[in-house]
Design goal:
By secondary structure, the protein is of the alpha/beta class. The protein has a single domain, classed as Metallo-beta-lactamase, Chain A, CATH 3.60.15. The chain has a six-stranded mixed beta sheet with strand order 1-2-3-4-5-6. The chain has a five-stranded mixed beta sheet with strand order 9-10-11-12-13. The structure holds zinc ion. The site of zinc ion has 6 residues, from helix 4.
């Protein structure tokens, strides 16, 4: 089983630290959209899609606005569809997509894989099909669902993963995926764990944006100051209680779990 880390978007948003930890309130940082491509015996699986071809080539007003706001380079070569093809795989072989959440920069590629089964937490599907707040109406884009995805909504309970309540593992060929609920950033935000030959990769989506927020070894300090941290965590609903939980997990099981988030440069 092979796993590929894909960068499906390069971004230069204000306030987000650069990889070396430097940055400032009025400085452009650097970020990416981190997706996984998993080759299984039963086709390909993606974890998050990033932007889709339509987003880069003919963005809706909302998508274009958000891309400019975050300083995204509009480069269709960064889409998961083109990335998959460049790896020598057929995008039509993408049979499963696991989503941390349905926000526009994570699910924009769904129309490029219209036949894939889309796995997500049940509350997330409910939120994107029936958005309630201004933020939900903005960030869940109708154009990303207009093709009628084959939803597979999961109730994230009944299983256990390192002590976390989660959905029972989903097996695709020899690959194993575990969806762990971390609601907050969205109603049904989840982390997606993928079993590898030497432990687990944990895709944390938008649970955090800056790795020291959850790293047990490095004391947490946001380089842009408390104000920026407050804007990011409050504005984007990233609950700090999850960081403490993740830090505990990585302290106790750091040799078995490798965590990363969507937007920090890998
Ligand atoms: Zn995001």
């Amino acid at each position: 089983m092979r796993i590929h880390h894909l960068n499906c978007g390069t971004m230069r948003p204000y306030g987000i630290p650069r990889k070396d930890g430097t940055g400032g309130f009025f400085a452009r940082g650097e970020g990416m959209i981190h997706c996984l491509l998993v080759e299984t015996g039963e086709g390909l699986a993606l974890v998050d899609t990033g932007w889709g071809l339509g987003d880069y080539l003919e963005p809706s007003f909302a998508v274009g606005f958000f891309m400019d706001f975050c300083g995204f380079a509009r480069d269709p070569e960064k889409t998961a569809a083109r990335r998959v093809a460049r790896l020598g795989c057929d995008p039509a072989d993408v049979k499963h997509i696991f989503l941390t959440h349905m926000h526009l920069d994570h699910a924009g590629g769904l129309p490029d894989f219209p036949k894939a089964i889309v796995h997500l937490a049940a509350p997330e599907l409910k939120a994107c099909l029936d958005p309630q707040t201004i933020m939900e109406r903005f960030a869940y884009r109708p154009e990303h669902q207009a093709h009628g995805p084959q939803w597979q909504a999961h109730t994230l309970s009944g299983g256990r993963w390192f002590g976390f309540e989660c959905a029972p593992p989903i097996r695709i060929g020899e690959a194993e995926f575990v969806m762990i609920p971390f609601a907050g950033h969205t109603r049904g935000h989840a982390a997606v764990a993928v079993r590898t030959d030497d432990g687990w990769l944990l895709h944390c989506g938008d649970l955090y944006v800056y790795p020291p927020q959850v790293e047990p070894a490095r004391p947490y300090k946001y380089p842009n100051g408390a104000l920026m941290e407050a804007i990011i965590t409050t504005g984007f609903h990233m609950p700090r209680r999850h960081w403490a939980t993740l830090r505990d997990l990585l302290r106790d099981h750091g040799d078995e779990v490798r965590a990363f988030c969507s937007h920090a440069v890998w």
